[in-house]
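Practice record 12: protein with zinc ion.
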Amino acid sequence: MRRVVMGAVLGILALVVPISAAAAPAPPSSAYRVPGVDNATTRTAVANQGVEILGGGRDYLEVLATPVQAERLRAGGLRLVSLPAAAPLPLPVAPGQFPIGYQGYHTYRQLTTELDSLAASHPNQVAVSSYGKSAQGHPLLLVKISDDVRTDKHEPEVLFSCAQHAREHITVEMCLHIVRRLAQGYGTDPAITRLLKSREVWVVPMANPDGAEYDISTGLFSMWRKNRQPTPENSEIGTDLNRNWGDEWACCDGSSANPANDTYRGPAPFSAPETAQLRDWVNSRVIGGVQQITAHIDFHSFSELVLWPYGFTTSDTGPGLNKSDADTFRKLGEQMAATNGYTPEQSSHLYINDGSIADWMWAQHHVWSYTLEMYPTSLTQGGFYPPASVIDRETTRNDAAVDLLLNYADCVPRIIGAHCAAR
Ligand SMILES: [Zn+2]
């Protein structure tokens, strides 16, 4: 089991302690910034060394690497800058709770309570249900928001999903913020009222509840990414949900076959109950032969990026994705990025990844599916664990991007002047 306990929050790495539960203890990893990697080929080559990619942008990556991996990267001519510890340890409150400085974040139970309360105070706008159960039996939460939430209207539907990756807690706050802002804005904010009268909005606020709960189970952060599903015939736990989707699964060295790796894709596409049931629910939105969901954002952290399909190929076009589609993805991606200051690019231009939800949403359903990597841009700013004090600022920062997607959801190609078939 390659598990890393995170001690320090900002510079995670001086304090990383390897825990050996299996026979062969994993070597200790350290965090490095790799500057000057300014193309996808080099970044993909770094990823293929087996290091854990923590974040990255157009000219850098931040990785966790063992001494052997670090040596190999240096031998390949790359510069590695150690990321130092820069912040005091957070203080644990209790197992299963966020530590001091992080208590503005929601545990699964707190999230459920907050959503139930929003549904109770906005009964015509907010409805909470579930689309299945996680590997460990947590109901997988699904929220619908609209002007008349109990009626399935003939309107474009938009999906926001969060926290496929356990430690990306800030994305749960993003999805909760979307629910809260839309619910409270209906009837008070004219723009939100108009949007909810013409759209139906779905939110999956915590796609990986088992992993999110596990990440805080000791009262400190465990740097956990995957779900908590046992691996068949192996002692390793967990599948990377965002490498487990069924479009071009395992095609292109953009995921790992090694159950110990953080990007382990699972033994088969949709082997994780969390992805299989979200797939089934998305499929169920095909009504009269028409997929009702037209646009989607899957929130992640960190790196401040707006990404779009495909991730499995560096080509701008691909199966079912022509030049006009690519232009549309880029145009809306760039416009969203102009509102929040993120960097826009095709997903594979960061590095190759296969089995993502965004690739599947497009390939299977032609949903305009984006991946947003939230604040910050570096481990030195907190990486996966920015303090709760930034939640309001960093979720509000995406309001305009969310509204832009909602606005174009009737016909996203109209952003490049193209037409859509009548729905
Ligand atoms: Zn992620």
